[in-house]
Amino acid sequence: MDAKLAALGCDFEPSKYTPDLGYSRLRVAISGKPTQRFFDVKAVHIPTFDGRLFHQTLITRHELEPRETFQVCLGEMRLETYKGESLLAFTFGGTMQVTIDRNDLYCEFNSSAPIFKVKEDPGSVGVIITDEIMDLLAEKQAKMTFHEDELYSHLAKFTPYQIFLASLVSLQKRADAVPMNLRREEYHKVVAALHRANDAIKNTDGWDGHSPSLDDLLSGENA
After folding, report:
1. CA-to-CA distance for 170 and 219, rounded, in angstroms?
2. DSSP track, 7-22
3. Longest dimension (CA), the chain
4. Is the CB of residue 186 less than 8 Å from the CB of residue 178?
5. Phi/psi of residue 128, each to 5°?
6. What pLDDT is recorded for position 223?
7. Whole-number CA gyration radius for the chain
8. What is the DSSP string of 62-123?
9. What is the DSSP code string of 151-170?
10. Residue 147's pLDDT is what?
C-alpha cells in the first residue's frame, strides 16, 4: 500500500477525461481497528448482482479470504468510517479486488465508466448527471414487476461503459422532450452538464455521440 492511501484511507484517482468527468479508479484501505487516517474506513457497501438477485454487499476487515474479487453492478457504493462518517459514490459497474495487506484490507475498484461522488459540489457535472440518472433508473424500476432484480438482470449483459453512454443518451432524449415553455433554470443546468460530459467523452474516447438508449438496453434492442 502506498503512503498516500495509508494516510488518507481512500483515494479517488483523477478522471482520464478532459474536461474532468468523475474519477477513474477508487482505492480504499479498510482498517482492522481505528487509526489516524484522514478517512478511517471501517466498511464498504457495494451493489452486486448474482445473476438472479440484487444485493447490497458488505466488505469489512473480517470474514474474507486473503484475496477476493467482487463484480459490482450499477448503483451506489458507501464508505463508512469508525467515526460514523459516510461517503457515497455512484458507479455503472466494475470489479472490486480485495486483498489483505498486513492489518488492513486493500480494496481497488476499477470500471470502464467514470466513478462519481454523490455528495460533492452540488453544481458539478458529476453530481448533476448522477442525480438525473438515479431519477431515471427509479422511473424504469417502477415500471418493472420485480424492480431492482429485473432491472439488473437486463443490464448485466452490458459493460459499465455501455450503460454509461446509454444513460447519457436517455437523459438527452428526456431533456429534448421537455416543452419549450417548461424549460426553466434546472433544465438548462442539466443540459449544460450533459453537453460538457458529451464533449469530454468525444475529446478523449472519440465517441460520435451515438449509442443505444437505456430503454434499448432494457428491451434488448441494443444493435
Report:
1. 13
2. HHSEEEEPPSSSS--S
3. 61
4. no
5. -60, -50
6. 46
7. 18
8. SS--SEEEEEE-SEEEEEEETTS-EEEEEES-EEEEEEEETTEEEEEEEEEEEEEESSS-TT
9. HHHHHTTS-HHHHHHHHHHH
10. 61
The C-alpha cell that represents 64 in the structure block: 474474507
Residue 146: the pLDDT is: 62
Low-confidence ranges of the chain (pLDDT < 70): 62-65, 146-148, 221-223
Q: How many residues does the chain have?
A: 223
**Cis geometry, peptide bond prior to residue 212 (ω within 30 degrees of 0):** no
**pLDDT at residue 1 in the model:** 73
Predicted TM-score (pTM) of this structure = 0.92
C-alpha dist (Å) from residue 135 to 39, 68, 85, 140, 142: 29, 32, 25, 9, 11
Integer Cα distance of 64 and 35 in angstroms: 20
13-23 burial string, b = 16+ CB within 10 Å, else e? eebebeeebbb
**Residue 149: HSE in the Cβ half-sphere, 13 Å Cα cutoff:** 6
pLDDT for residue 2: 82
Could you tell me if 25 and 107 are in contact, meaning their C-beta atoms sit under 8 angstroms apart?
no
Q: Where are the domains of the chain?
A: 3-117, 125-219
pLDDT tens digits for range 105-163? 999 999 999 999 987 777 788 889 999 999 998 888 888 776 668 888 889 999 999 99
How much is the pLDDT for 222? 58
